[in-house]
Amino acid sequence: MPLVQCQPAGRRGSNKTQLHLLLLFLSVLQTHGYIIIPPDYKYYNLKQAPKITVQPVSHTAFSLDDVNLACEGSGDPAPSFRWVKDGKEFRRELFESGTLTAEVKEELRSYQGSYRCYVANELGTAVSDLAHLITEPIPTLAKEKRQKTRSFEEGESAVLYCNPPKSSVTPKIHWMDIQLRHIPLNERVTTSLDGNLYFANLIVNDSREDYTCNAHYISASVILPKERISISVTPSNSVVKNRRPQLQKPAGSHSSYLVLRGQTLTLECIPEGLPTPEVQWERMDSPLSPARVRMLKYKRWLQIESVSEADDGEYTCTAQNSQGSVKHHYSVTVEAAPYWTRRPEDHLYAPGETVRLDCQAEGIPTPNITWSINGVPIAGTDSDSRRHVSSGTLILTDVQYSDTAVYQCEATNKHGNILVNTRVHVVELPPQILTADGLVYKATEGQTALLQCHTFGSPQPKVDWEIFNSGPALANAKMSQTSDGNLQISDVSEDDSNMYTCSVRHSNRSISAELQVLNRTKIVDPPQDLRVLRGDDAVLQCKYTVDHKLKQPTIQWKKDKHKITSSANDDKYSEYTDGSLKITDVQMEDSGIYSCEISTKLDSVSATGSITVQDKPGSPHSLGLSEKKDRSVTLSWMPGAENNSPVSEYVIERKEEQNPEKGRWEEYRRVPQDIRHLEIHLQPYNTYHFRVRAVNGIGMSEPSPPSDSYSTPAAKPDMNPENVTTVSTDSNSMVITWQELEQRQFNGPGFKYKIYWRQASGSSPHWKESSASNPPFIVNGTGTFIPFEIKVQAVNELGVGPEPDAEIGYSGEDLPLEAPSEVAVTELNKTTVLVRWSPVSMESVRGHLLGYKIHLRKKGPRTHSRRSLPMQEPAADRNRVIVVHGNKVEMVVSDLQFYSNYTLTVAPFNSKGEGPHSKAYHFSTPEGGKVIFYSACENLYECGFRSPELVLFWHPAPGPVSFLTFESPSETEMTLRWGAPNKPNGVLTGYLLQYYEPVPGISSEQLMESINLPLDTEFTLKGLNPQIQYHFMLRALTAAGDGEPIEIEGATLLDGEPPSAINIEAGQTSVNVSWVPGERQRNFAFSFRYLKKREGGEWEESEKVNSSQAFYQLQGLTPGVQYHLKIHPGNNSWEFKTAGPELHELPSSFATQGWFIGLISAMVLLLLVLLILCYIKKSKGGKYSVKENEEDQVNGAHTKKDGEFGEYKSLESDNEKCSTNQQSVCESKSSSNDSLADYGDSVDIQFNEDGSFIGQYSGRRDPNGHATHGSSGATSPINPNMPPPSISFPTSVTGFLGPN
């Protein structure tokens, strides 16, 4: 930007050709009309033409002291002041200040006139505005006679006149009473602009003797009170007569007003009448603007401030009451004193420039504009061809220093005049270079570089540019010089990097500048055109490269030319350092053109891409039904938005509902996207709704709004039910069933089914019929398994369906009557037999023969040792049923057990059930051993004993033992227990026990130790190493060999010990203690001891705790107290502090002494005994109800001790106190005491992962609170394999902390 700011102001020179003038107008250099000295230009002693800073103001002077016309100015050198009164010099020249005051000896009236102030120095003279001074004496009141009291009748109107003294200054009027209180004004009582007081109608309360008009002359500092006015209002003896409104002011029906622009216009409308009229204002040519108009004095005044030409026009005032109305018209004419529309400004000019001073003013009427130089009209000065005035504009061409002056432009019309001073200062200033020396300019390849060389002087200096070691810069075609001296280099490249010098012609002033050309910023991976599914995230790339000498660029993304801003609070947009933009959860409104702009200090580059958001289509709409017929209707629809993915098809859905509360939407048909209407075939007697979905490549749209419902008329059924058959279960009846028709297939009201039946081979050709609303239908008295022809037909109120086809059905079946005979068993091998039987007659089946069932029952092994009985087999292994379907009369039965006894029967069966069983057939299987087996076929029966190839085959040895467990009575012993195998497959001869210690890298056979055992099921190993985990294998033995092994691993249990590491969590009155029990340790009994850390405390001990519990809770503690905690036996100790504020003991007093407490307790006990004796005496015969006493005693047993939670009170002491007459009560106590009190302190606590505990009773407590040694604790539910503890110890969860 050039440092010298210029305004177009005409042209230089006057004797030029038109072409030259045009070139001057187009040339920027020639349009510099004035100069502005830059702030960094250094200059000294620049003179200033005079300027008026304080203008004189017109006013009225009531005394010599009021004569004061201010006139102040500035300039360099300091100006002088002189006054002109009524066109003539007035008084002498003044210095320092030009304010005019009155001389004491002169008369006041001699100062009245029009004044101007002239402020001058060697550069020119400034002229002030014209000020008018009016002189007059201070207003006074003429002597007045006291007015007589004016009498009025109630309801009349009245005017009280003020008539203040005349003056050029309008006084402010105040109507007051004798106590200087304002007369209240309202719609009925108001004042006018001339100060009179108007009453629209009088009331009796208006009577008073002190109505006083006070005229306040503010500039004269005087208040003149007029003579008091007295009025008397007499009540009317008759009814007051109402009257229509009349205007008290203004008079007549029309008035005219002239107002000047900028003044305040006040129109008044003061009516009289009874009742008091209301006033409404209107403007005839346009509505009144509330912003321009104010209603004052209860709408009696309409006021417009700062009047403009737009307020010129016709106004009306309407006063109205119940008796009529009156209207007044106001014609408002707006004129204007002169005012400026364009004012010339003060400027500096260089010699030879052209000066154009524009001075434009408006007014009504149009003002006349004149020019003066230093207060002298141009018409009165020497003519100069370089000066020219045209339409109020003064043009000075080829100005010289002698043209320096103050020029006055004055506009005048009949309403006044205005004047403006303009200072024109023609100066010569030496040239200076304002741009700093040694600046470094940077640009990127391809840009236009601008090397600055700002100069200033008057006239404007001219400069030359040179390239270091290359000569003048303008010799390069890419380089040009701007009008303000800067060097412009287009399309810079690396070759343009150099040093440049700017020199002012005809002087020794110059500066140097350096140009560095950097690599251009590029976008190497611009954003692409993406197609994204709605709801997904989109990433637009914008990778770039910049010159390494430039700092990190700024990246600005825009969507549709609007900036995108990302913030931590908004995760919609995320910008990354590589320039990419991530848009989260894109929606349809995110579609658009995206651009990224990479900006550095030197250049910027941008690239664009787009995002097209695709989504399921919008729902179709505007569904309509047309061509409505009995069995069809045409559905039409309008497509919704495709959402940037074309629609491929439409899905028509319909809902059928005979009952409006039922029915669901079902897909009816799919049609291509170019179809917008479809004929839909319908069922009779139904109500339909339709809706449409659109499908595109993204998915299916939401359904359209449903169409109007459409109901079809009823008709006869179109079809009959299918799958007509019989499912009879009773032997003397037939159950006919069928597949029901859907409700939409009923076609009309009163739908039902008509059932027909007759014997298929009987003598009756006639059909029997009946009806039913739904299947099944039962026909009784049919006989057993008789064939029938059956058919079912659909019927409704309009008729029957088509003729149905007859089907064959049967009446109910019954159990078969005969059992199969000649049952025989042939052994195929030691575990497979072939069973044969003779078939039963078909007449005895009494139904459809489904086949035969072979019932096989295993009676067990043939012999067993008494010392080792096998475990009882499951019923499924002992009893088997083999089903043979159809008419087959033989079956191969396999998978039999060796060395077992079996019983076999065969029975026929039909759908009713089984018939009688055949006679039982008994057979046995041999012991497992070596046999010869034909390998060419699966079994002997199938091979037919013809295969010549024989091999040796060993049958199975005993199965595995049924179970194997162990327990550790000591650290070196382990007792194994097991059960005999379920499948011995022969006679057991003993067991083989093998065990070893697994060692990595060594086979188990090398470490194995084997022990042959008799038929016992228990064995104890001694001398084991407690530190070793052993592997055990146990097998059963028969003559066939060793059985399958069962394997387990285990180690002996170590002696238990109390925990050494515990976790403490303290509450206010309790503390939770937890620890990790040893994995292989037996239960160990210990207790917690705890002590308050204060003087005089004693150790307290909890009950016995099991080491396997892992948790214990101490209760009944004091809040806010430090405790010591120990485990006994053991030496470990801990400290903890309970939560909450510490409870301080009360100061010692007699109320806390032991003797006092004992005395009070004895008195309470004595009182209690007396009350009991009184109660006994009142009882009959001195006796009382045993039942009531039992209840009292039992209730007493359930009272809780202090500090206990959930504990029942021990009844041991009560039993000692029982008398012989109360033995039953004591027995009742003993029996009731066998409750949670016996188990409450022996709950085994385990914790689940969520922190909850699992409580389990582990023993019964004796009356002294010690555990019974004979009881064994239950195994923990979270560690079922843990052996039972040898000693059970109680666990308290109730805060029973032991002896106090």
Automatic annotation (TrEMBL):
<keyword id="KW-0732">Signal</keyword>
<dbReference type="Pfam" id="PF07679">
    <property type="entry name" value="I-set"/>
</dbReference>
<feature type="domain" description="Fibronectin type-III">
    <location>
        <begin position="1058"/>
        <end position="1154"/>
    </location>
</feature>
<dbReference type="InterPro" id="IPR013098">
    <property type="entry name" value="Ig_I-set"/>
</dbReference>
<dbReference type="GO" id="GO:0007420">
    <property type="term" value="P:brain development"/>
</dbReference>
<dbReference type="GO" id="GO:0007411">
    <property type="term" value="P:axon guidance"/>
</dbReference>
<feature type="signal peptide">
    <location>
        <begin position="1"/>
        <end position="33"/>
    </location>
</feature>
<dbReference type="InterPro" id="IPR003599">
    <property type="entry name" value="Ig_sub"/>
</dbReference>
<comment type="function">
    <text>Neural cell adhesion molecule involved in the dynamics of cell adhesion and in the generation of transmembrane signals at tyrosine kinase receptors. During brain development, critical in multiple processes, including neuronal migration, axonal growth and fasciculation, and synaptogenesis. In the mature brain, plays a role in the dynamics of neuronal structure and function, including synaptic plasticity.</text>
</comment>
<dbReference type="InterPro" id="IPR036116">
    <property type="entry name" value="FN3_sf"/>
</dbReference>
<dbReference type="InterPro" id="IPR013106">
    <property type="entry name" value="Ig_V-set"/>
</dbReference>
<dbReference type="GO" id="GO:0005886">
    <property type="term" value="C:plasma membrane"/>
</dbReference>
<feature type="domain" description="Fibronectin type-III">
    <location>
        <begin position="957"/>
        <end position="1056"/>
    </location>
</feature>
<keyword id="KW-0472">Membrane</keyword>
<feature type="domain" description="Ig-like">
    <location>
        <begin position="139"/>
        <end position="230"/>
    </location>
</feature>
<dbReference type="Pfam" id="PF13882">
    <property type="entry name" value="Bravo_FIGEY"/>
</dbReference>
<dbReference type="GO" id="GO:0098632">
    <property type="term" value="F:cell-cell adhesion mediator activity"/>
</dbReference>
<feature type="region of interest" description="Disordered">
    <location>
        <begin position="1254"/>
        <end position="1300"/>
    </location>
</feature>
<protein>
    <recommendedName>
        <fullName>Neural cell adhesion molecule L1</fullName>
    </recommendedName>
</protein>
<dbReference type="Pfam" id="PF13927">
    <property type="entry name" value="Ig_3"/>
</dbReference>
<feature type="transmembrane region" description="Helical">
    <location>
        <begin position="1155"/>
        <end position="1176"/>
    </location>
</feature>
<feature type="compositionally biased region" description="Polar residues">
    <location>
        <begin position="1218"/>
        <end position="1234"/>
    </location>
</feature>
<keyword id="KW-0393">Immunoglobulin domain</keyword>
<dbReference type="InterPro" id="IPR036179">
    <property type="entry name" value="Ig-like_dom_sf"/>
</dbReference>
<dbReference type="InterPro" id="IPR013783">
    <property type="entry name" value="Ig-like_fold"/>
</dbReference>
<dbReference type="InterPro" id="IPR007110">
    <property type="entry name" value="Ig-like_dom"/>
</dbReference>
<feature type="domain" description="Ig-like">
    <location>
        <begin position="431"/>
        <end position="518"/>
    </location>
</feature>
<feature type="domain" description="Ig-like">
    <location>
        <begin position="338"/>
        <end position="425"/>
    </location>
</feature>
<dbReference type="GO" id="GO:0030426">
    <property type="term" value="C:growth cone"/>
</dbReference>
<feature type="region of interest" description="Disordered">
    <location>
        <begin position="1211"/>
        <end position="1234"/>
    </location>
</feature>
<feature type="domain" description="Ig-like">
    <location>
        <begin position="245"/>
        <end position="333"/>
    </location>
</feature>
<keyword id="KW-0966">Cell projection</keyword>
<keyword id="KW-0325">Glycoprotein</keyword>
<keyword id="KW-1015">Disulfide bond</keyword>
<feature type="domain" description="Fibronectin type-III">
    <location>
        <begin position="616"/>
        <end position="715"/>
    </location>
</feature>
<dbReference type="InterPro" id="IPR003598">
    <property type="entry name" value="Ig_sub2"/>
</dbReference>
<keyword id="KW-1003">Cell membrane</keyword>
<keyword id="KW-0677">Repeat</keyword>
<keyword id="KW-0812">Transmembrane</keyword>
<feature type="domain" description="Fibronectin type-III">
    <location>
        <begin position="819"/>
        <end position="928"/>
    </location>
</feature>
<feature type="domain" description="Ig-like">
    <location>
        <begin position="521"/>
        <end position="612"/>
    </location>
</feature>
<dbReference type="InterPro" id="IPR003961">
    <property type="entry name" value="FN3_dom"/>
</dbReference>
